[in-house]
Design a protein that fits this description.
single chain; binds adenosine-5'-triphosphate; binds magnesium ion; globular; 4 helices; 5-stranded antiparallel beta sheet; alpha+beta
Length: about 140
């Protein structure tokens, strides 16, 4: 993966597109088949949250190369929207918490699947999630 890949998320069709695009960079050396599946699943959850809770947004995937100067590399996925935001992020990150009768496993699941997971959200302004997976 040489450059950023940006996917607009407006409908469930776009979730499939984002998930599919996430598989390509992850197939490069340093990621194994299991990683590819985990990354795609995490992308799918955050993209689905955009459709379910914010209607529209975008997913940006970027390569992370030589991050520490010591050759550490991986992939970064940013999911962002300008939807309603989340009032209590800590609560939203708990297993089983859902405001829409979902299972409430999307956010905690995505965090668990990735190596790093940061979420920033503001009511009335939107939500930004930054997730990273490092090559082994
Ligand atoms: N992008 C977002 N914008 C606004 N609220 C969000 C967003 N993503 C998550 N949330 C809030 O966080 C809660 C938890 O999200 P999570 O993905 O864990 O569960 P869910 O989407 O409700 O159910 P599911 O298990 O089907 O994913 C949601 O119910 C929603 O209230
Ligand atoms: Mg969800």
């Amino acid at each position: 993966m040489e450059t950023d890949s940006q996917t607009a998320i407006n409908s469930s069709v776009d979730i499939v597109t984002a998930r599919q695009r996430g598989r390509a960079p992850a197939l490069e050396p340093g990621f194994n088949g299991a990683d590819v599946t985990l990354i795609a699943a995490a992308i799918s959850e955050v993209a689905r949250n955009i459709v379910d809770h914010a209607q529209r947004g975008e997913i940006v995937m970027s390569p992370l190369n030589n991050v520490t100067g010591g050759g550490k590399s991986g992939i970064q996925i940013v999911a962002r929207d300008e939807g309603p935001g989340i009032r209590d992020v800590a609560q939203a990150m708990q297993y089983g918490y859902s405001t829409r009768k979902g299972l409430g496993v999307g956010l905690p699941g995505a965090k668990w699947l990735m190596d790093e997971f940061d979420i920033a959200s503001e009511v009335g302004r939107g939500t930004t999630i930054v997730m990273k997976k490092w090559r082994r």
